């Protein structure tokens, strides 16, 4: 099976793969109106492109983002696209920030810059920042940092994804923090965050039952209590600022 990573390593394939992935990012992080308006940016006349560039250079982040999209999807020009994504990000365009962060991680292997821009996107209201940062740390094997950012994602109202990853981190040996009681507690939160009769719910239920079979009655009771404490703690927790730790010394 050919992976995304393998394709990105291929000079011929890389542009097309990055275009597809950035297109997916734009669809996920945009409203319906933004998607419709961004689609028009894929096809620009020379006059329209020049107009957008002039507006961008005068401080219009939306125009800079449209130029970046044009170079990404119509021209497959990574260097030009990167320049305009960076300009749009500096002008405060949230979707551009997430795309720029992605490019820093995938294309340039510059995780420091990637994390910096995910943090900027979070300040602008993007709730997926800590999940993305945690994934970066996971990819590098820095599991403690990943765990911390999954916790931050949970506290920043990204309960479904965060609780899933926290379940896995406490369940699987490779993450170095195996704790079946905590894994069960997070699996309960994960399960209860999902609508029933869906693929995601069935997936969560399967994991929950697997952990349940490994625990005795006292351990299950402890996990139930812990899950309740996590939910209560979330309602009381205060996040001091973007991309910083929760203002508590408690170990989750």
UniProtKB/TrEMBL annotation:
Q: Which domain of life is it from?
A: Bacteria
Q: Signal peptide position in this chain?
A: 1-32
Q: Return the Gene3D superfamilies for the record.
A: Tetratricopeptide repeat domain
The UniProt record lists the keyword Lyase: no
- Alphabetical UniProt keywords: Signal
How is this protein named in the record? Sel1 repeat-containing protein
Native organism is: Microbulbifer thermotolerans
């Amino acid at each position: 099976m050919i992976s995304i990573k393998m394709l990105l390593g291929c000079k011929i394939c890389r542009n097309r793969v990055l275009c597809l992935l950035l297109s997916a990012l734009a669809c996920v992080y945009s409203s319906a109106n933004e998607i419709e308006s961004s689609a028009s940016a894929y096809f620009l006349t020379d006059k329209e492109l020049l107009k957008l560039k002039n507006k961008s250079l005068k401080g219009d982040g939306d125009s800079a983002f449209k130029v970046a999209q044009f170079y990404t999807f119509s021209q497959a020009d990574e260097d030009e696209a990167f320049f305009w994504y960076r300009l749009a990000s500096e002008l405060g365009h949230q979707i551009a920030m997430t795309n720029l962060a992605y490019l820093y991680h995938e294309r340039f292997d510059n995780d420091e810059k990637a994390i910096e821009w995910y943090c900027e996107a979070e300040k602008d209201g993007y709730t997926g920042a800590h999940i993305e940062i945690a994934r970066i740390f996971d990819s590098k094997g820095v599991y403690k940092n990943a765990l911390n950012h999954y916790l931050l994602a949970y506290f920043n109202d990204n309960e479904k994804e965060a609780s899933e990853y926290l379940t896995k981190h406490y369940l699987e040996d490779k993450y170095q923090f195996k704790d079946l009681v905590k894994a069960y507690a997070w699996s309960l939160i994960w399960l209860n965050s999902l609508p029933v009769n869906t693929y995601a719910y069935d997936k969560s239920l399967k994991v929950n039952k697997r952990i349940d079979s490994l625990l005795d009655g006292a351990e299950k009771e402890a996990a139930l209590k812990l899950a309740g404490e996590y939910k209560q703690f979330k309602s009381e927790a205060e996040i001091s600022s973007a991309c910083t730790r929760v203002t508590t010394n408690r170990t989750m």
